[in-house]
TrEMBL record:
Keywords: Cytoplasm, Phosphoprotein, Receptor, SH2 domain. Residues 477-573 form the SH2 domain. Residues 274-383 form the PH domain. The keyword Cytoplasm applies. This is Growth factor receptor-bound protein 10 isoform X5. InterPro entries: BPS-dom, GRB/APBB1IP, Grb10_SH2, PH-like_dom_sf, PH_APBB1IP, PH_domain, RA_dom, SH2. Residues 130-148 have a biased composition (Pro residues). It comes from Microtus ochrogaster. Belongs to the GRB7/10/14 family. Pfam families: BPS, PH, RA_2, SH2. The gene is Grb10.
């Protein structure tokens, strides 16, 4: 912007200097000395003394002394004709000559009343010598009418196949549409909902950025594609912990980096810096089913591969894809559809509705961490500061809201602590061993209450023992009878962040359950086994050391204490029916 301003200033000063040299100061009152004869002034007229040049820039009035002399000559001839009454005594050729000269001067006055402006677009004119059309002053031009955004229907699907048609404005962003869907479906707005662009025929999907216009994205989607409404906890994970996000061997900087969080963020968000992501990727060859391992380099200008080993010399780099007019997608079923070497595939797709297979750039990483690194770097280099602004907007809104207007958050998002209410006032239990014993005592108290209810109440469909075994099915974190592969797919879709979990029925043991948990971008499974004590059924994760009367108590406990787990339970996978 500074370069543009300086160039405009220099251009303006140059124009002023040129106009000053072309103009001459105006004579006093725009008149000549009265002692000069009119006929001689018409013959002795010089360009540097032309009053037309003198007044051209100062005022629009155009006065020529030669015109007054010619009019006086014509008036004298007419007086002679009227006095003598003999038109033949005056040569008619002289009168016609004076009339013709006056008409030429009038035409010249009309064409030269405005300053001569060079035509910047001569090719738009009718002829080479035709003058440009006179333009109206900028102040007289009416402002362009502001067109209000129109409304359009958008169909959004959920994970269970249900859909909802929503009427939105044509300028609505993906964040605004997600908040509207959260309101309509009565979900908890924890700023982790996202809109997914899903292409079933191509086997591709990606999460829309919060600032993207939904209608514009829909215009680039084919008819069989659709939008999905889904959680994504890892959307801005880079801004929360950037140091551990990229391996050192994959990132090179144009300047020395100290490795701090602020330095990493500054290098990626600053458009003047030139970070590079480099490493080996499996690249699908065009027109073939085979994949080839290449050394790839991602820069702000695009994605390149080296034709000679790991060399990054300009003569050895070939462009694979451009960042500006493309978006990066996950490969849903890369091994089945594209014969990919593993399930960590990604694709760079142009932003248009009709594409050919040769326009897709299919890539495959060695593991999930490397794929996440490449895809996050692609987003950072393409959008830059926009991503950080999207990350900061929910925090700024939360700071502006009063404590009474703060939206309700899910239990997994709260900072839960163990409390002791045995005394007159409650206290926080800081010791993990004491917290575990308090949880055991609460479990025993629940068992005693259940025993009393068994004795006093009759057998009914809401029998406590039956209720304890089915009450967990009402929770969002329980996904029922799904396979191990399906549970892993749901975890990957909703973000590989620490503490993301779900519970499901065990396939090997009909009476057991499985806890699927993500830790360090790896998915692990823990079996929850039933055990009996004094005729009551409990559930345990650690071979009976810690027992719970139902799965809700088990989840609540491990949200406070990690116990035998690698981390605490923090976020639960959820599916919402629209």
């Amino acid at each position: 912007m500074n370069d543009i301003n300086s160039s405009l200033e220099s251009l303006n000063s140059a124009c002023n200097m040129q106009s000053d040299t072309d103009t001459v100061p105006l004579l006093q009152n725009g008149q000549h000395a009265s002692n000069q004869p009119a006929a001689s002034s018409s013959r002795s007229l010089q360009p540097q003394a032309s009053p037309r040049q003198k007044v051209q820039r100062s005022q629009p009035v155009h006065i020529l002394p030669i015109r007054w002399a010619q009019r006086s000559e014509l008036w004298i001839f007419q007086r002679r004709k009227g006095r003598r009454g003999d038109p033949g005594e005056v040569p008619r050729s002289t009168e016609e000559m004076l009339n013709r000269r006056l008409q030429e001067e009038d035409q010249q006055f009309r064409t030269s009343s405005l300053p001569a402006i060079p035509n910047p677009f001569p090719e738009l004119c009718g002829g080479a010598g035709s003058p440009p059309p006179a333009a109206a002053p900028p102040s007289s031009l009416p402002p362009p009418p502001s067109q209000p955004p129109t409304k359009q229907d958008v169909k959004v699907f959920s994970e269970d196949g249900t859909s909802k048609v929503v009427e939105i404005l044509t300028d609505m962003t993906a964040r605004d549409l997600c908040q509207l869907l959260v309101y309509k479906s009565h979900c908890v707005d924890d700023n982790s909902w996202t809109l997914v662009e899903h292409h079933p025929q191509l086997g591709l999907e990606r999460c829309l950025e919060d600032h993207e216009i939904v209608v514009q994205v829909e215009s680039t989607m084919p008819s069989e594609s659709k939008f999905l409404f889904r959680k994504n906890y890892a959307k801005y994970e880079f801004f929360k912990n950037p140091v551990n996000f990229f391996p050192d061997q994959m990132v090179t900087w144009c300047q020395q980096s100290n490795g701090s969080q602020a330095q990493l963020l500054q290098n990626f968000l600053n458009s003047s810096s030139c970070p590079e992501i480099q490493g080996f990727l499996q690249v699908k060859e065009l027109g073939r089913k085979s994949w080839k391992k290449l050394y790839v380099c991602l820069r702000r200008s695009g994605l390149y591969y080296s034709t000679k080993g790991t060399s990054k010399e300009p003569r050895h780099l070939q462009l694979l894809a451009d960042l500006e007019e493309s978006s990066i997608f996950y490969l849903i079923a890369g091994k089945k559809q594209y014969n990919a070497p593993n399930d960590h595939g990604m694709c760079i797709k142009p932003n248009k509705a009709k594409i050919e297979m040769k326009e897709l750039r299919l890539l495959c990483a060695e593991d999930e961490q490397i794929r996440t690194c490449w895809m996050t770097a692609f987003r950072l280099l393409k959008y830059g500061m926009l991503l950080y602004q999207n990350y900061r907007i929910p925090q700024q809104r939360k700071a502006l809201l009063s404590p009474f207007n703060t939206p309700v958050r899910s239990v997994s998002e709260n900072s839960l602590v163990a409390m002791d209410f045995s005394g007159q006032t409650g206290r926080v239990i800081d010791n993990p061993a004491e917290a575990q014993s308090a949880a055991l005592e609460e479990g025993h108290a629940w068992r005693k209450r259940s025993t009393r209810m068994n004795i006093l109440s009759s057998q009914s469909p809401l029998h406590p023992s039956t209720l304890n075994s089915v009450i967990h099915r009402t929770q969002h974190w329980f996904h029922g009878r799904i396979s191990r592969e399906e549970s892993h797919r749901i975890i990957k879709q909703q973000g590989l962040v620490d503490g993301l979990f779900l519970l499901r029925d065990s396939q090997s043991n009909p009476k057991a359950f499985v806890l699927t948990l993500c830790h360090h971008q790896k998915i692990k499974n823990f079996q929850i086994l039933p055990c009996e004590d004094d005729g009551q059924t409990f559930f345990t994760l650690d071979d009976g050391n810690t027992k719970f009367s139902d799965l809700i108590q088990l989840v609540d406990f491990y949200q406070l204490n990690k116990g035998v787990l690698p981390c605490k339970l923090k976020h639960h996978c959820i599916r919402v029916a629209l």
